[in-house]
Write a structure and sequence with these properties.
Two copies of one chain form a homodimer. Chain A is an alpha/beta fold. Chain A folds into two domains: 10-131 and 305-334, 3-Layer(aba) Sandwich (Isopropylmalate Dehydrogenase), CATH 3.40.718.10; 137-294, Isopropylmalate Dehydrogenase, CATH 3.40.718. Chain A has 13 helices and eleven strands. Chain A has helices at 27-40, 52-61, 83-88, 94-103, 116-127, 164-182, 203-215, 244-269, 273-281, 283-292, 319-334, 337-346, 348-353; strands at 15-19, 45-50, 68-72, 109-112, 137-143, 150-154, 188-192, 222-227, 239-241, 301-304, 309-312. Chain A has an eleven-stranded mixed beta sheet, with helices on both faces. Chain A is globular, with a radius of gyration of 21 Å. Chain A starts with 14 loop residues before the first strand and ends in a 16-residue tail after the last helix. In chain A, 57% of the residues are buried. At the A-B interface, helix 8, helix 9 and helix 10 of A face helix 8, helix 9 and helix 10 of B.
């Protein structure tokens, strides 16, 4: 399979574009996370967007000034800004500057902790939707029983609607992301529904069920059919496809449930002297468990379906969280993910219609998307 | 406020109609759960539906034969039966018989562990929708930080669609259920969305937002506005309203997340000798925690919007779970819930349109629904 859309300059495959501003904890945390990441990845470098006067001393403090180029941007998109306002007044912001750097191919992937709505709106405006994509999606990682520890779910909330064709696009994009982000050569895709029986669910889901099933062979993924909410953390699927409304509710419900349980667990272990002693003894084990389901380890919602890749880190991410988002960005950057995804999606329409040539596709070529 | 629809015979307010068949564990578990319930409630009695030859020895074994009347029904709706088949061939089944008993006012509330789809279809056919209800809903209980320990969420999956008027009806029904099932005189209602800002979400949600807000005062509830998935276990709301597709995915996502965490916790505590000792020391505390989030304690999806109340117990419920569903049924039966709900919903349309009389309603009369 040839890739006619390869545009990423190989010299920028190790460069990330990082918005220093907009996170809840400020630029000091972003720079600290960047320092952690750069220590782990000696070949990587970064473009850092924000007020130079603020960023310069932070870089010196962490001794990473030689590997980071500051792009001076004085304005900041605030968490409370409406996307429409951010677009209108956004030109001087660090977020805008961070997106422009990937648009101009000066960096491979853009990372921001800022306002999600504004980041999506600005990315749509400047990077444009990839050919064949009607609605971009946000893919998130979900703690699971799989060997990698994670499943991919999309759309986590880029758009509140998705029709049958969008859901097919999500399946293709999710498969490509699982290959390049999680190293799963032949991902298993499931379509989220209220039951696994074929007659269940809304009309568009039944059509999408057909479309995704038909696209599986040439899309180099395995379609496992309908899955339910309880399968999000399961090991019978790698990628779960749903509309952004349902995905957003599911994501926040999962987080909310996990928070409630941790809170109750902490309360239970602090209740009696015996249980406090127990908590002390089990400290190591519980810390490992906490790490396993730590949201900071899965930090990074990836915007899929644009002409470049943008990663949204949690607004409340600490330096561990920021470093995790940068790790993910770097993995995708080195794999040339943006171009592979674009090639996958651009050929999706012809794939779906062109069922006759299905036999020619051969086995999975994991290097093409 | 007068209640023109009171039809429940006061002599049957202590009688439950129980489908003995259709649960995964068979009638022995249902009868064992019934025995637990009857020991707790000396004034209660039950009509038990299933094959007399099987049920009679079970009742004797638990010494509850004098408080239970068997309605002989030889056929059983299987978990794998399609609702349409169950309807066609259902007449001789224990499920049908259990529903008929509340239809004929021989019992106040019907409880079944059987096939959810068949139970809903049969209940719709025989009990009919209450006046003013377009789509009935299933209300479930959700472990929460509230003093009662639970929030109500509906629809948990009776219908995959819900328009703005349905969502208003769900709000009214959910408020009435919270009053009668959880003893919350003035419930706080939230509408599930992808964000709490007014401009977010689908068009029908924005309209429902207005409708529910307008109905709050005369409906004797407090409307808190949009809530997110993370608020399902929160203490800022008592009842969460959503369509059955989203509700079903959220419910199963919450259960799946809780299961994953318990599994990982168990694994973590069995990992090292120290952690095993810790688990032993904390046994009591962990058991209390387990009880707090035990799905058997919250057993019972309540079908709302029919002319009588039907409770769906988990198919896999053990005797503790069955007894919990019967407790809930009995609470609703004694409160005359079916009639109160019918009165609430029947007057809903006029309530919504009749904004001028809003001032007359006075303060909450917790006895009317």
């Amino acid at each position: 399979m040839t890739n006619s859309q390869t545009v990423t300059d190989p010299t920028t495959a190790h460069v990330l574009s990082v918005d220093a501003m907009g996170g809840d904890k400020g630029p000091a945390t972003v720079v600290a996370g960047l320092a952690v990441f750069l220590r782990r990845q000696p070949e990587a470098s970064a473009l850092l967007h924000g007020p130079e006067s603020e960023l310069k001393p932070l870089l010196s403090k962490h001794k990473i000034a030689d590997r980071v180029t500051i792009h001076d941007a004085r304005d900041v998109v605030k968490m409370t800004d409406k996307p429409s306002n951010a677009l209108r007044q956004g030109k001087g912001t660090s977020m805008w500057s961070a997106i422009e750097a990937v648009r101009g191919d000066n960096a491979a992937v853009c990372v921001s902790c800022g306002n999600t709505g504004a980041l999506m709106a600005m990315s749509m405006l400047r990077l444009r939707k990839a050919e064949g994509v009607n609605r971009p999606a946000i893919a998130c990682l979900w703690p699971s029983r799989n060997p990698s520890g994670f499943n991919v779910m999309l759309d986590a909330g880029a758009d509140i609607r998705a029709d049958q064709d969008d859901l097919l696009t999500y399946a293709l994009m999710g498969a490509s992301y699982a290959r390049n982000g999680l190293d799963i050569a032949y991902p298993r895709i499931g379509l989220l529904n209220v039951g696994t029986e074929e007659h269940k669910g809304r009309a568009e889901l039944k059509v999408a069920h057909e479309l995704i099933g038909n696209a599986a062979e040439r899309g180099d993924f395995n379609y496992v059919g309908f899955v339910e909410g309880g399968d999000l953390p399961s090991d019978k699927v790698d990628v779960i496809v749903t509309d952004g409304f349902t995905g957003n509710v599911a994501l926040k419900t999962g987080e909310g449930t996990a928070n409630l349980i941790s809170e109750l667990l902490r309360g239970a272990l602090m209740k009696t002297p015996l249980s406090m002693l127990a908590a002390l003894l089990a400290r190591g084990s519980l810390r490992r468990l906490g790490k396993r389901i730590d949201p900071r380890r899965v930090n990074g919602g990836v915007f899929l379906g644009l002409n470049h890749t943008v990663i949204k880190s949690h607004g409340s991410a600490d330096e561990t969280g920021v470093a995790a988002a940068l790790d993910l960005a770097y993995q995708l950057a080195r794999n040339g993910f943006s171009d592979k995804l674009a090639a996958r999606v651009a050929s999706a329409a012809s794939l779906a219609q062109d069922a006759h040539q299905e036999g020619d596709a051969g086995t999975s070529d994991t290097n093409t998307g």
